[in-house]
Task: inverse folding
């Protein structure tokens, strides 16, 4: 199936909010995602199928020359098909095109698949945030990539 990576639009919000509920124990609401459309410091990309389904998305915030990945989500039926990899690649291309110096993210300590994916891009673990995640309570690893 062909997937297109595009910038987030209003028409993606309902599906993104549903994907949040599937992927995260404390999901962002549709309104929170909608607010990101007008946030001049936010950049979101969406993976869309030929028939218009949102297969995944990635969000980040930009502060001066730094990027911070806020969310990466892939619908269960599209996992292990390279969608998260394509989304991260798109964000890194954007960061490099803007001359950003580094990018960071947090990930559940138990999320071995995501950690391995981030490491494949050169992210490295630089610390922990104790009890960062809820439902279940878990530490976050802080990961960092110099661009």
Result:
């Amino acid at each position: 199936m062909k997937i297109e990576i595009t910038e987030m639009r209003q028409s993606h919000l309902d599906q993104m909010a549903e994907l949040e509920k599937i992927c995260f124990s404390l999901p962002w609401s549709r309104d929170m995602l909608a607010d990101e459309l007008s946030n001049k410091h936010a950049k979101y990309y969406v993976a869309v199928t030929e028939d218009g389904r949102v297969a995944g998305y990635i969000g980040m915030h930009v502060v001066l020359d730094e990027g911070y990945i806020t969310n990466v989500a892939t619908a269960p039926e599209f996992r292990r098909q390279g969608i998260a990899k394509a989304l991260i690649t798109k964000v890194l291309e954007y960061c490099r095109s803007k001359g950003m110096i580094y990018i960071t993210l947090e990930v559940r300590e138990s999320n071995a698949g995501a950690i391995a994916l981030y490491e494949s891009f050169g992210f490295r673990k630089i610390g922990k945030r104790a009890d960062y995640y809820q439902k279940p309570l878990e530490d976050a690893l802080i990961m960092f990539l110099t661009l």
